[in-house]
Automatic annotation (TrEMBL):
The keyword Transferase applies. It catalyses: 5 isopentenyl diphosphate + (2E,6E)-farnesyl diphosphate = all-trans-octaprenyl diphosphate + 5 diphosphate. Supplies octaprenyl diphosphate, the precursor for the side chain of the isoprenoid quinones ubiquinone and menaquinone. It comes from Halopseudomonas sabulinigri. This is Octaprenyl diphosphate synthase. It is an enzyme of class 2 (transferase). Belongs to the FPP/GGPP synthase family. It comes from the Bacteria.
Length: 322
């Protein structure tokens, strides 16, 4: 994953972050380390620590504290993944078995709790109350987003506004907090810090919109997860919501029934309905708008290879196939 060009300017920083993550996974309980190492070693795109490093460097910071902040953000993200997979009863993530599939739900939840608490220990060590405040608020908002999403499972009456609230809270919030705290740590001016915060929000929304689109148009091997996972869990994401509102009566009825019962028995006709209704084009269009906004927001930062990489990342969010 790190062969993508926007990682290159901070490749050395990334090595330092990975080393710090391994050090901070230490525990006197072997199972904690075992599960922690398993989920961290799965890798993934590591976009959240990436935006910390690029954002801090773009604002002129060259300081080991950015490595700590990036590791904190990755621990918070990994904790949410462990909990999400239990809530969603997922058995595949990033092409590998989930921790809950291998060790069970209880250890996964508890190791998620360990990663949260270790992240807050590291925040205390940073000694910046504003960063602590931003990240404490972010973890609250993320949890609220998860609960809101859970409350809408198999609810075919979920509207677009509620869906957007879910993805802003559940996904965009940590991107926003990562970028915001990078600006704070770098002591950027108020305009630059606010632009970074808004960039993170726009990037996160674009990223989740594309994730939800790829659930109906992507390839399971490329994505590292099953196509139709959201439908299997009865999640009314935007492609489905749009199809119910703007598709034919038959398409709407098919999608409504699938959401209400869950499962992927009808995944092939539903993928056809979602495509034919224009839902994929609509979702992709919204994602592109967010990516364009993200790029525009960066213009208050000084020109640098780091700003260039943040722009490339925004474009990648909507052009990717995985």
């Amino acid at each position: 994953m790190t062969t993508l060009p926007f990682y290159a300017p901070v490749s050395d920083d990334f090595d330092a972050v990975n080393q710090l993550i391994l050090e901070q996974l230490h525990s006197r309980v072997p199972l904690v380390e075992k599960i922690g190492h398993y989920i961290i070693s799965a890798g993934g795109k590591r976009l959240r620590p990436l935006v910390v490093l690029l954002g801090a460097r773009a604002c002129g910071l060259s300081d080991p504290r950015q490595h700590s902040l990036a590791a904190i953000i990755e621990f918070l993200h990994t904790a949410t993944l462990l909990h999400d997979d239990v809530v969603d009863t997922s058995d595949l993530r990033r092409g590998r078995s989930t921790a809950n599939a291998l060790w069970g739900n209880a250890p996964s939840v508890l190791v998620g709790d360990f990663l949260y608490s270790r992240a807050f220990e590291m925040m205390v060590a940073l000694g910046d109350m504003q960063i602590m405040r931003i990240l404490a608020n972010a973890t609250n908002v993320i949890a609220e987003g998860e609960v809101l999403q859970l409350s809408k499972v198999r609810d075919a009456n979920t509207d677009e506004a509620t869906y957007m609230e879910v993805i802003r809270s559940k996904t965009a919030m940590l991107f926003e907090a990562a970028c915001h705290t990078a600006g704070v740590l770098a002591e950027a001016n108020a305009q630059q810090t606010e632009a970074l915060r808004q960039y993170g929000n726009a990037l996160g929304i674009a990223f989740q919109l594309m994730d939800d689109l790829l659930d109906y148009s992507g390839d399971a091997a490329e994505m590292g997860k099953n196509v139709g996972d959201d439908l299997a869990e009865g999640k009314p994401t935007l492609p489905l919501i749009y199809t119910m509102r703007h598709g034919s009566a038959e398409q709407a009825a098919l999608v409504r029934q699938a959401i209400q019962k869950g499962g992927t028995d009808d995944i092939a006709p539903i993928r056809e309905a979602v495509a034919a209704s224009g839902a994929l084009d609509y979702t992709a269009g919204l994602a592109r708008e967010q990516a364009d906004e993200a790029v525009q927001l960066l213009q208050v930062l000084p020109a640098s290879e780091y700003r260039d990489s943040l722009e490339q990342l925004a474009r990648f969010a909507v052009d990717r196939k995985f």
